[in-house]
Amino acid sequence: MKIALLGYGKMGQIVERFAVDRGHEIVLKISVDNRADLTTANLRKADVAIDFSAPDAAIDNIYACFDANLPVVVGTTGWYGQLQEVKNECLVRNNTLLYGSNFSIGVNIFFHMNKVLAKLMNNFPAYEVQVEEIHHTQKLDAPSGTAMTVAEGIIENLDRKIEWVNELVGTPFDDVLKKEQLLIESHRIENIPGTHTVVYSSEVDEIEFKHTAHNRSGFALGAVVAAEWLENKQGFYNITDIFDFK
Fold first, then answer.
1. Where do the annotations place (S)-2,3,4,5-tetrahydrodipicolinate binding (predicted)?
2. What contacts 51, CB < 8 A, 6 or more positions away?
């Protein structure tokens, strides 16, 4: 496949390495330094785009791909407030988009097992639950998209939680947590690719369920695999559509 990389920072460069290793060709690289090259004509040279840019650039990149009728895999998070609008536009215009808060195979297994555990914990009301996430200091959004997906998986399956709230450690947090609220505690520490932990605590013990990324390679490889999966498909997809955890 011919691939357009939208965002050519650390993640974009790792995506490039995996894509080339798997026999694909990079025909366009867009960074903050050459946004003027993000044209319909240039995008149409590609078979698919992979976006690892920034929250404030992702929406423009997505619509540029729609204008070029180019399928796009979106690994950028922080734009989900406009998710429904983007989905509607994608379907109305017969475009193709696949998005995900995390493209790592291990994280998607973690997502599934998190839901299974949350449903089980309905039987054990003595346990309080919270989500903790740690990322590098260049991570612009908090909570992480991955942490939001984890929290939403808990809320869908654990009857005693109905919404999540976020505390970015090191910034003011004045909220009084209600029993039905799920806390996502966010930390920003140098050189941490991503660690997500679900903690169930009672007066007598604590259960930790954790995923730790050793580097960014899993995210990049997953994005290339997603682009391959998207070939000859049309519609609006989530990374979970690739996996069968039945």
1. 136, 145-146
2. 6, 7, 58, 61, 62, 72, 73, 74, 75, 76
